[in-house]
Amino acid sequence: MSEGSAGKGIWKTLFSGTMIIGVVIGVILWGGFNWALELTNTESFCISCHEMKDNVYEEYTNSPHYMNASGVRATCPDCHVPRPWIHKVIRKIKASNELFHHFMGTIDTREKFLKHRGELAVSVWKTMKATNSRECRNCHGETYMDFDKQDPRAAERHEEAFDAGMTCIDCHKGIAHQLPKGWKELAKKHGLMPKDVEQD
User: Fold this and answer.
1) Are 79 and 19 in a shared domain?
2) Collapsed DSSP state (helix, strand, coil) of residue 60
3) pTM of the predicted structure, to 2 decimals
4) Which of 35, 54, 97, 149 is deepest in the core (most CB within 10 A)?
């Protein structure tokens, strides 16, 4: 075997070994990232800080999304974290702002939470409006609604809303959490309540 052939063989072996090591490291890093992503996508993680546990979570436990006749339950991530991967990662990046405010103590008391409740609600409503209530539609699909089994008023409003191109959050604010004081004015101010919608 010539010296040149031996040199090529060594480089080929080194390259192959480096590629295998790179793939193994990549799989480990990807697995670790995905594991961390899913760990932060659980209800137990969401309520691990008292701001969430003592405020919005308490309200949610009294809503139909927590307990109902069918036993089907929507948890915090079901409503607030997108399922498509790229949207989920973007939401997690945006959540770093929430961590900042947690450590700054922005809403670390009930009084502070209530003071900021309006702006927090508007932020969620804007997101839901911008995504056409994407997370609501994970469970509630207009195509599969049986209007004959709905209350007549609800069936009529749903059909009107779908025909008008409205989205879930246009009418269903406060479905799992208490509404902030003056919420109708807030929603109108931010263009988040259609003029022809009567919300209870």
Assistant:
1) no
2) helix
3) 0.82
4) 54
Cα 122 from Cα 190, distance rounded (Å) = 8
The token pair that represents 60 in the structure block: 């949610």
Structural domain of 13: 1-39
9 lies in the same domain as 80: no
Total domains in the chain come to 2
| Whether residue 72 is found in the same domain as residue 133 | yes
Please give the structure tokens belonging to residue 31.
Answer: 């697995």
Q: Give, for all 200 residues of the chain, the pLDDT tens digit.
A: 555 666 677 888 888 888 999 999 999 999 998 898 899 999 999 999 999 999 999 999 999 999 999 999 999 999 999 999 999 999 999 988 988 999 999 999 999 999 999 999 999 999 999 999 999 999 999 899 999 999 999 999 999 999 999 999 999 999 999 999 999 999 999 999 876 665 55
Residues 61 and 113 in one domain: yes
Does residue 199 sit within a domain? no
Neighbours of 142 (CB within 10 A): 12
